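USER: Fancy drafting a protein?

ASSISTANT:
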Amino acid sequence: MNQKQLFGAGMRNGMPVCLGYIAVGFSIGIAAKAVGLNALQGFLLSLFNNASAGEYAGLTVMAAAGSYLEIALMTLVANARYLLMSCALSQRVSPEMKFCHRLFLSYGITDELFGLGIARPGYIEPAYMYGAFSVALTGWSFGTMFGVLAGNVLSARLISALSVALFGMFIAIIIPPAKRDRAVLLCVIVSFAASFAAANLPVIAEVSEGTRTIVLTVVISAGAAVLFPVKKPTGENNGDVDSGQDV
């Protein structure tokens, strides 16, 4: 394929991701409106932070009147998985790829776009990824903007109902892996219990919600990593890795 064909292939494969991002971005926009952001700010929020969990975590801290430092730390923790995805993608990048392409590719890494890139055989082609980015991230940014605009015209009761969709999205994220893996299920239960306890214990409850969330996220994830380490894939030789594993 030439560069134009690769870009077109990326756009085609990125279109389903775009449609999903519009729906989820709309929910993020409702949450952004609730903390006082306007349509342009919501658009820029999603344009420069391509992560639903990271955005929602940041909006949660903003709603709790947290500091800039708390927002930065919470976003870093929520988006830490992209460091691992970047390391994985770096093994599929041609040594001759220019630094500017590496930089732009790192900007567009999300769970779904990482899956598109890692699923292709051979070296990752920048033109293909740019095609996927162009439609997926556009849908994400405009979806958020539409959510903010909808928050300006819809009733407060309807906005409150729509905001539940975001919690539904997170439930949809955690339930499938929790059903497959007891370690994940245990982490979910511990997270709910610890969050409830931290919000009600006399001394800890006085700490800001953003700081409590950061501390609990780091402690629980670190404990899970120590108690339930991910086993290396086994095969007849060291290079025999199941290509169908979750990404």
About this structure: Residues 235-247 have pLDDT under 50 and may be disordered.
